[in-house]
Amino acid sequence: MAATATAPLAGIKVIDFTGVQAGPACTQMMAWFGADVLKVERVTGGDVTRHQLRDIPNTDALYFTMLNSNKRSLAINTKTPEGLEVMEKLIREADVLVENFAPGAMDRMGLSWEHIHELNPRLIFGSVKGFNDESPWKDLKVYENVAQCAGGAASTTGFWDGPPTVSAAALGDSNTGMHLLIGLLTALLAREKTGVGQKVSVSMQDAVLNLCRVKLRDQERLEKVGYLEEYPQYPNGTFTDTVPRGGNAGGGGQPGWVLKCKGWQDDPNAYIYFTIQEQNWEKTCQAIEKPEWVDDPAYATATARQPHIFDIFADIEKWLADKTKYEAVGILRTFDVPCAPVLSMKEIAEDPALRASGTVVEVQQQGRGTFLTVGSPIKFSDYTPAITGAPLLGEHSTAVLSDLGYTADQIANFQVAHVIADPAEH
Ligand code: CAO
């Protein structure tokens, strides 16, 4: 909707047959980049997120508005013959159709990939499921945390003496949507050469696992050498035959940890992440006022440090005790120490730099005023997405149907028969 003539995806028509988070995150980004994204929703209630976790009565929830900006909405019962006919007309004209319903739902609706491909051979069909087609669990319905557990994230997240832990980051949902977006854009490029669309499928388990690539690396290393030198369990603890949870340890070759700063007793986020970069050891010692560690054989190499790495972190916390997280980072950055304050969501929401970059944006929303959302994390030199509000349920039903050639009488009859929702009902 906010697309300008120069928008990268201008002219691309997307049928957004998605709900909750994984699919909507994908199509929202297409809309930001200029595609005409038409969200097709159930007549009663629409996308479930419109109603989930509402903060204002009778107003679409932030869960919905933050994943469906820049789209249009058609509320139509696709299980009626008339609704299915509308869908088929839309499919004939579209470039992309994205869905993330429960396994088998598209087939049950009469919209199998084969049928869609027959209706419009150029159309690219994007599909999100919990598991891929080879999985014994391919019939399961899946939400975020289910995927994090099945994709290897939960077993490797948290502390060794606690249970598997899920991440707050939407590794199962939005991450899968971003993977699907890559697939769809690739298929659009392929279509330039072949003239034919294809089905692009991404499973949430696979998308999570793709982000847990280094943990599979660690599994292979563990099987070969029996230990993982960068994990807190080394060298004083024990390893089993599977990758353990490493707490806040750095995942690469650079040890790091979350360290307390001034005020941590009262502020749950008065911490920084501190990285000991091997090639920066000398400057790191200067930064934390421990110049004697530079040449001390017990400290001078990563191998020498590892057996007492937590004593080292404890000493660094002593240095941090009279510094706020911002003061600490202010000092450490001048010594090239890779570090950052642990930022709360409140701090992020108020951060002027994130606002200036368009990463956090305030958006006008009908019936709500404004709301804060995460804008595009992808920055182009020649294009800046303009983030607009999310559509009301069925806001564009009449316009879409009339563009498809339906008369005012036919549209009125659709309303009476509940094929489309009556806007007065919203
Ligand atoms: N008109 C008529 N019927 C419609 C419709 C429309 N416009 N849009 C959807 N429906 C129907 C579907 O056809 C389906 O009907 P059947 O079950 O009779 O075939 C029904 O609505 C429910 O679809 P659903 O997929 O939304 O079902 P659900 O709420 O039971 O499950 C979810 C939700 C997310 C668990 C499931 O969709 C799923 O596993 N999706 C794949 C994985 C995924 O994307 N999960 C992440 C979601 S983000 O956390």
Structure description:
- Substrate binds at residues 252-254.
- Involved in the catabolism of oxalate and in the adapatation to low pH via the induction of the oxalate-dependent acid tolerance response (ATR). Catalyzes the transfer of the CoA moiety from formyl-CoA to oxalate.
- GO terms for molecular function: formyl-CoA transferase activity.
- Belongs to the CoA-transferase III family. Frc subfamily.
- By secondary structure, the protein is of the alpha/beta class.
- The protein has two domains: 13-210 and 351-417, 3-Layer(aba) Sandwich (Rossmann fold); 256-337, 2-Layer Sandwich (formyl-coa transferase, domain 3), CATH 3.30.1540.
- The protein has helices at residues 22-32, 62-65, 81-93, 105-108, 113-119, 144-150, 174-194, 204-211, 213-225, 281-287, 302-305, 309-320, 325-332, 345-350, 352-356, 397-403, 408-416, and strands spanning 13-17, 36-41, 72-75, 96-99, 124-129, 199-203, 256-260, 271-275, 339-341, 360-365, 369-374.
- A six-stranded parallel sheet has the order 3-2-1-4-5-6, with helices on both faces.
- The radius of gyration is 26 Å and the shape is elongated.
- Bound molecules: oxidized coenzyme A.
Helix content: 25-40%
Bound molecules: oxidized coenzyme A
Total DSSP E strands: 11
Q: Which residues sit in consecutive blocks of at least 5 with pLDDT less than 50?
A: none
Principal-axis shape equals: elongated
Average residue-wise pLDDT:
96
- Give the number of helices: 17
Given the helix and strand composition, which structural class is it? alpha/beta
Could you give a short account of the major beta sheet?
6 strands, parallel
CATH superfamily of the largest domain: Crotonobetainyl-coa:carnitine coa-transferase, domain 1
* CA distance, first residue to last residue: 21 Å
Physical arrangement of strands within the biggest beta sheet: 3-2-1-4-5-6
CATH architecture descriptor text of the largest domain:
3-Layer(aba) Sandwich
- Beta-strand portion reads 5-15%
The fold-level CATH name of the largest domain is Rossmann fold
Helix-strand string: EHEHEHEHHEHHEHHEEHHHHEHHEEHH
* Cα radius of gyration in angstroms: 26 Å
Tally of domains: 2
CATH class of the largest domain: Alpha Beta
Binding site for CoA: 42, 100-102, 108, 141-144, 277-279
Subunit structure: Homodimer.
Keywords: Transferase
Function: Involved in the catabolism of oxalate and in the adapatation to low pH via the induction of the oxalate-dependent acid tolerance response (ATR). Catalyzes the transfer of the CoA moiety from formyl-CoA to oxalate.
